Amino acid sequence: xxxxxxNAPPVARKQPFTxxxxxxxxxxxxxxxxxPGYPExxxxxxxxxxxxxxxxxxxxxxxxxxxxxxxxxxxxxxxKEADSSVPQKDGNWLYWVEYEDGAExxxxxRRPVGAQDDGSxxxxxxxxxALAEGKEYFRLGALSVSSDGRKLAxxxxxxxxxxxxARIKDLTTGDLLGDEIPGTxxxxxxxxxxxxxxxxxxxxxxxxxxxxLHWLGQPLTADVELYHEDxxxxxxxxxLSANEQWLIVATSDHExxxxxxxxxxxxxxxxxxxxxxxxxxxxxxxxxxxTLFILTNDTHENFRLATAPLSSPGEWSTxxxxxxxxxxxGFDLFRDFYVVEGREGGxxxxxxxxxxxxxxxxxxxxxxxxxxxxxxxxxxxxxxxxRIGYQSMVxxxxxxxxxxxxxxxxxxxxxxxxxxxxxDLYTTERLEITARDGTSIPVSILYRxxxxxxDGGPGPLHLYGYGAYGIAIEPGFSxxxxxxxxxxxxxxxxxxxxxxxxxxxxxKAGKLERRTNTFxxxxxxxxxxVERGYTEAGRISISGGSAGGELMGAxxxxxxxxxxxxxxxxxxxxxxNTMLDASLPLTPGEWPEWGNPIEDRAAFELIAGxxxxxxxxAQDYPPMMVTAGLNDPRVTYWEPAKWVARLxxxxxxxxxxxxxxxxxxxxxGKSGRFESLHETAEEFAFIxxxxxx
Length: 693
Prior knowledge:
Helices cover about 15% and strands about 35% of the residues. By secondary structure, it is α+β, with helices and mostly antiparallel strands. Strands 32-33-35-34-36-37-38-39 form an eight-stranded mixed sheet, with helices on both faces. The radius of gyration is 26 Å and the shape is globular. Keywords: Hydrolase, Protease, Serine protease. Pfam families: Peptidase_S9, Peptidase_S9_N. This is S9 family peptidase.
């Protein structure tokens, strides 16, 4: 379609379709937008409709192209073109990654420990630039060097479908071995003296219900299934223990877990079941000698750390009690000590503890009152300096080495902003805004100290939220958001219920029957920011993706007048129909998160009451930009396509509604460190356009 001839948005035809559940009839006039051959999309009418929407998107944004180009240029100027990570020792080698000038993708390097740092001993082990050449989309999945350092296992997705092809490279010759495993969706784990690889295949429903062993040099037909999961809601993953002596095979859904241990040297040995699954009990396991360390929520929702003898893996003794105040999120074992990570008051904490002295606790101190911090890559069993990552909304990403014996942080690298960055120009705050039920919702906010609106009133504000799966949105650093902040915006993150920002109870308070708390929290945060003078109704732009896109859909239905611009990326908006379809990859494993409307009428009625697609109605809606990925296995393309079609049918305003489908990408949009900036530039150009900035 010629963009110059596009004078009106596409109108999807209506084709009546009904289904009955619990005696209730559902009507869906746009169900036809789902290609019956999915995951292949070949229906000409569907493709023509998506292309027409893309043409309308291009026509509407054509007048903003100079702004998009300017935004892209300034975003790119904040990224160091030629950059590299801090080398990290693993065995006899130092490993690091590099970006070259103009490169979208990384190169993976190593050199022998003790070799001169002059490039003479540097060895390129994987070249993403070469692998991505000529491809519209490229993503490296797993990457794992064998314990002897002679082989590299890696996997690649070149269409966004998240079905990766695994290959093995001989690092002594640079040649690819004949082994090729298509359809993986997992880590690649070396076992049996580097003669075998453990992996998981994605089944037809894009679920990993297996852990399989591939012997190098043998045909795939000889691969052995080490474990198969029969519960369609569970997914399987594998990894190595910290001392690399045990293969850990775990299976879980969003609320229940189960772990088996297999000797890494003998992967065909009978697995050891740590503890049989109990509904609602999650646990993770690692080992030191013959002692298991178990992170579990069996006695406290914020988790405890327990130990057990390998000979009696189900006999758990508490090492660290669960706590209302401290949310225990993870642990890492090392030879001489172990490290516990968690959150207290919503802020990250890292503490070193000792096996022989349980009362000796050494927290790592950080310089700011609000920040994000966590352990980085620490691959060796015997570590004396821990790699730690740190950032805040005003502090660029910083890599530290924490010298355990000295309790000292050593700065190894600070993110460079080539175009210039002065932290003194900005301020960040941590607010508490009271929701309608009396709950205090934390909000992180960033703005320039000299922020002033041209007319003297409150300036514009961008509000971001997610609120699902227990995923915390931490107050970290982003170079792109300064393209709004430097234009007078305040940028706020709402730490709403549904994430685990304040602990596991915070997560539970936004899922299942309490799901709507997530939506009302977001609205109440926006209203609270208006009341405090940070902005005013109608001057708030909002964005979210995936489950955060569901959030966008819910709040535009409930409070459309609050928002001046809305961006919903790959939005999970057709919640009811998706949760009613057990054949979809997103469904059986998601019932613990959203509820099962097939079996539970109350869950059906609850989801029907908030599902954005089902609650579009005849009212004015704010300006909206929506995206999708044709190959997206997480939120299928037809969800946003149907939502936009229904919005076009029912909305009573003349505000802009544009929809773009990435025809060669998936859930994450375009790949590449610069290509992805084009989409952010489009998003920000849309926001600035609609808010008159």
